[in-house]
Amino acid sequence: MEALDELLQKAEAAHGHMCAGQILGVRMALLGLERLGIEDPRGADRKRLVTYVEIDRCATDAIAMVTGCRLGKRTLKFRDWGKMAATFVDLTTGRAVRVTAMETSRELARERYPQVESKSRQQMMAYRELKDEELFAVQPVRVTVDESELPGKRGDRVACGRCGEGINFGRFADVNGERLCLSCARPDERYWQDEDRG
Fold it and tell me: Domain range holding 163?
């Protein structure tokens, strides 16, 4: 793996700016990879790793950059739980670790740099140098990656009985004997509405 400074530069280039979340994400990914013994996640080890992220913030872009995991490769899984946490799964060994940023790290940043007025700047400075155990909680976990979620897995494709759009990987609901995409089966839960519905 590259050094922290080099990875932070790459994260900044990929994300568009440097922030405390980018630093946490890079360090979180490095720690998860270290604990699993994965040394080359974007190269020789690229098919070993699946990463679950729990927040849609800056750290997620940094984690993706370090690990090489991507939604389009089916190796990055998003669970919208609003937590600064990620779980790294080694598909070869079955081992997994969940790494979470501890809330106490914010206070440690204030204590370490009280002379710095900007909270963001305090965090950026501190998060680069605090020890892993001061920033993160690491928990060995068990993750069963469903076969339909595996990278490279091709699933059956069916057409929605209502809208006709194609549906992959069994993401449909059987409603009164009809296979419907989830947006047709649960129109009140979808993130979009037909313009004529208001």
Answer: 157-197
CA distance 186 to 158: 17
CB 84 within 8 A of CB 51: no
- The predicted structure's pLDDT at residue 139: 97
How many independent structural domains does the chain possess? 2
| Residues facing residue 51 across a β-bridge | 76, 88
Q: Give SS3 for 10.
A: helix
The mean predicted confidence, pLDDT, of the chain is 91
Percent of the chain clearing pLDDT 70 (strictly above): 98
**Distance separating alpha carbons of residues 39 and 30, to the nearest angstrom:** 9
Which pTM value belongs to this model?
0.85
- What pLDDT is stored for residue 94 in this prediction? 95
Could you tell me the CA-to-CA distances from 106 to 16, 17, 31, 110 in Å, in that order? 23, 20, 19, 7
Residue 136: Cβ within 10 Å count: 22
